[in-house]
Amino acid sequence: xxxxxxxxxxxxxDDYVYQWEAPCELDELEIQIxxxxxxxxxxxxxLIGSFxxxxxxxxxxxQMEDGLYVYRMLIHPFYQGKDMTGHIFKHLRKEYKKIxxxxxxxxxxxxxxxxxxxxxxxxxxxFPDADYKISVFQVSKKGQIKKDRYGxxxxx
Length: 156
Description:
Blueprint: H1 2-14, H2 26-34, E1 38-43, E2 46-55, E3 68-75, H3 84-95, E4 101-106, H4 110-118, E5 122-129, E6 132-138, E7 145-147, E8 153-155
Parallel strand pairs: 3-4
Antiparallel strand pairs: 1-2, 2-3, 4-6, 5-6, 7-8
């Protein structure tokens, strides 16, 4: 898993995509795996991709009682461009069809924003965070969220 993270991080940096400050420390990764947040994508027993998902945390720009946050999605550089992420999005839509599943990126990351839109994710909005903005997207079609008249996000 660490090799997958390193290879993917290097490819992002080589492509001038600076989505992560630091992708993941080994101790942190072990905790995430023990909590059941890390899922893998294999091809003939070879790890080719992964995604990590957890309940929405308190500092996330969109708050709701139940909803999930995909905080890491990786495809090994050798398998990129072969729509392996399509399998991940298909799984997310099937497994969590009645639960809002959110993803985010730095609002200036047009490449990743377009990637989410090309995988039929809905743009929820751009939200301030420190000295930049975060773009938030939703994966699932059922259980979508919207703002109520008070500005709170609710599932519908």
